[in-house]
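Example record

One chain of 128 residues, shown exactly as stored in the release files.
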Amino acid sequence: MKISQLHHIAIICSNYEASKKFYTEVLGFTVVNEVYRKARQSYKLDLSLNGQYLIELFSFPDPPARPTTPEATGLRHIAFGVDDISAWVTFLQSRNITVEPIRIDEYTQKKFTFFRDPDQLPIELYEL
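Predicted structure tokens for this chain:
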């Protein structure tokens, strides 16, 4: 038995329009499919990056807040590989997004940094 690939990451947001805008307009994801599920009062937005389906963005009425960051049990953060981390930091800051200082991974010597989505989910950028 073997897993073929990562299929998707599911994210529940508190403000659907703000998160949709963030993941599409800031991070550059493409909308694959968007549905409103009336019975659940929930949107489901399928997003791809460079043609690969990666994120399911959900909205639900009054979802509970994340307990702590980042060491709560469960998903710690999501990470995206980028070619030029400094350019990304400049871009995010131009969109009024707070970005942590760039650090160096002590094992790989690669640059990385963190910022947060509209619901404070930690997102890492890792320079390839």
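Notes: The radius of gyration is 16 Å.
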